[in-house]
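sorry for the late reply, my laptop died twice this morning and i had to redo everyting from scratch. anyway the thing you sent over, i finally got around to it. pasting the sequence first so we're on the same page, its 401 residues, then the predicted structure underneath. double check i copied it right bc i was rushing
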Amino acid sequence: MSYSHGPGSGPTGGGPEWQPYSEPTVAGQPQFGQPQPGNPQYGQPGPGEAYQPYQPYPPQPGQWPAGQGGFGPGGGPPPPRSRKPLIIGAVAGAALIVVALVVTLVVTLAGGGTAGNPDAAVKTYLQALSDGNAQKALDVMKAPPSDLLLTDDILKKQQEIAKITDIKIVDTTKAGDMATVQATYKFGDRNADETFILHKTGDSWRLDDGAVGLELSPSMDIPELTAFGVAVDKEAKIYYFPGPMEWGSADKNFSVVDTKAKDFPMSAQAYFGASQLTTELSGTGRNAVQSAITAYLDNCALSKQADASADKPGCGQNVYAYNAEPGSATWTAPTDLSKLEYRIGYDNPEEVSVSGQLPWSVTYRTTATSYRPAENKTEQDNEFLYGKVDLSADPPTFTSD
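ok and here's the structure:
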């Protein structure tokens, strides 16, 4: 039996007293407080159980005075129960569910579940590149054979030159354990629209290719090649994250130029070209070549003959002076070397070819004759210089051909 009260009523109020009412009876349904078949609590034994005498519900001795069916002293009605704790409990439960969902979502996006779906893997990969976080990018891609250049230091240098921004996932297509994800983003001042191929291993999706693979041809003949200062001249193939690459040489005499530097790869999977690297003399190398040439010219200028090869083998300057007094020539070596051309050797970069014309000046004394006294003459000679500078020598030396 339960209780209800009308408006304004209550155990201490001035309204009507609590009135009992009977629950509606449903045909065939046991009623509250009536014995139920097979339930020992209501006096009916179950299969294999001993008979238990009927006990009033609830069977708590002393709770209800004998002969009274009320809930309180004197058989009065119970105080009205507030439903507020139940509501609070329900709200709190809902809040816990929401918090649990949020925590689960955060863990999925930020923790080990970053590769739980293909679009999240691509977004994580591109954001990791932008942030200069090499390890985070490696976590959502198949590991390449070498990670020599896949470091935070190099990745951050790449992003300083051209940064990835404005990342958007455009489309995702799944086919079993394979997926393609189309993404757009800015790479420096270029617009990228790339499609990534991924495969699922266990519960994780990974990019098939997250690093650019570049074979280093032996025909490059670049002395002590470096990439962002890291020596790669002993590597047959290198791997680096998409983006610009800074090539160089550990040999101070050379610099390396990529003629396609502005067309750097914006993703590993869409990159089918190759850097076009050429070797040039660095400022230091050019000065070394010019110093070797100057030393050669200064030595040739010590000649005292109108034909310098007469007393300075290997020197080529000369003037036609049949009446020059032997040993009277004074040569002035050229100082302007701007018209000379330098070419690094194909087989040996340390061997630099030199070619071009240089203006010489010579003053000599003529031989006196019976009809003409001796006199001093000055003449110019534009001599073609051709030879090689050996940068491996210490100091570098020039040899004419």
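The first helix runs from residue 84 to 110.
thats about all i looked at so far, will dig more tmrw
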